[in-house]
Amino acid sequence: MLPIRKTIHQSNTIYDTGTKPILVTCDDLQDWVCKHDHVAKLVNEIIGSKFAEIWNINTPEICLLEVSDEHIPRLPERYVQEINFRKLCFGSLLLKNCTQIDDSSVLMFKDKNFKTKIKNKKDFLKIALFDIWLSNEDRNQNNSNLFVDFSDLSEHKFFALDHGEIFNSGNLKHGLFQISEDESIINTELANVLFKRGAKLTKIVDEIVQNFYLCASECEKALTEIINLIPPQWGIDSEALENNIKKNLFNEQWLKECEKSFRSFIQIKIQNK
């Protein structure tokens, strides 16, 4: 099971997103972003985070959170449902030296000195393929859910977080369908700043695709162990979930479709520029 952290004082920070996550400080004296949404979304967060680790994609440390009643924020103008905290919540370690990528931050990447400090530039495309594979509709040009970590001044890194909308926003039981190019970070100005068409890009894409099949295989091997991290009190049918993921995510046809979409998006949005 994931570690369980307990809050130590009331939170006064509510993030202005649809699910209204809150910022909490816990008994480990660390700050965690607490998500208290429907359990299906929280399950997706666990699965997406652990799969990202297997892919060697930077993503925050996670835990389960026990939020005391007296620590639930009660701000009239930004109301949260107190009943959501009657269960264990999902925690993502706060990234303190990071900036979320948006239209304004793209200017940083146009600076040659800054761009040379991005040592894991290929991870941008790896994350794009990761999202295609998991049918993540929530990382795109309007909402990147992608951060740059400045902890090391000589080496900046991409971090991916927020996996609650994988599986076509939770429709796994109905089967997966491919996200569109508009729902991919490949369809962003940043993609064209980072990558130029040519033999070098082709080589990068081929390497990522080759590794994709290996990563998918490793995720399948770890699936049972990952599902066992889901707390029993969430009432998830673990066997049905595992069967649905195996049926939809690891079959050869789906993997080939993901590769095809990935190559197609790059051809349309980068190589044709």
Task: Give the helix/strand layout.
Layout: E1 4-6, E2 13-14, E3 22-25, E4 31-35, H1 39-54, E5 62-66, E6 89-93, E7 98-100, H2 106-109, H3 112-115, H4 122-134, E8 146-149, E9 157-160, H5 166-170, H6 189-194, H7 199-227, H8 238-249, H9 252-271
Give the low-confidence spans. Answer: none
What's the arrangement of strands in the largest beta sheet?
1-5-6-4-3-2
Class by alpha and beta content: alpha+beta
- Count of the separate structural domains: 2
Give the overall shape, derived from the CA principal axes: globular
Rounded average pLDDT: 92
* Biggest sheet overview: 6 strands, mixed
Span of the ends, CA to CA: 47 Å
Query: What is the chains' assembly state?
Result: single chain
What's the CATH architecture of the largest domain?
A: Orthogonal Bundle
How many strand units?
A: 9
- According to CATH, the fold-level topology of the largest domain is Phosphatidylinositol 3-kinase Catalytic Subunit, Chain A, Domain 5
Highest-level CATH class of the largest domain: Mainly Alpha
Q: How many H/I helical runs?
A: 9
Strand content: 5-15%
In percent, how helical is the residue content?
25-40%
N to C succession of SSEs: EEEEHEEEHHHEEHHHHH
